[in-house]
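Continuing the series of single-chain predictions for the mutant panel. This is the parent chain; the variants come on the following pages.
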Amino acid sequence: MIFKSFNELPSSEALGGLWKRRPVPRPEPDLELTRDSWIERGAEVVGWWLARLEHWLGEGGWLRAWLRLCLWLSVALAAAGLLLLPTVSKVLAEFAASAHWAAAIVGHLMAVVVALPPVIVSLAVAYLAYVVGRRIWLRRRSRQGFRHHDEYYQ
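Parent structure:
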């Protein structure tokens, strides 16, 4: 349901019906004294004080509704957690293992890439030494007067 204005919002009675909120009746003491043991009498007094506290905290029933909603949510989330947690933990464990292997592969590739510049520099220096050595050798040969015995050079 999509609301277009605040006038279309549900009333407080409708929201109270969603919560199943019922007013908490004012506790009435039982004035008939029975012959109970001290434990039963103490439990009755504690129950009386808890009923008064509940009436004082949420006379309109909102506290019961809130606790009921929280209990329902906790049961639903616990059930979802119990059903989904093993599967999700297995998927995450497999993802962590695959991420570990992927990181190892990338690490090895990066080691190769990092090792390439010295190799490339060494090859470039060797090639440069070859080119320079060849030029020096050709110049020395040309200074010694070595000429080709070809018609082109004569």
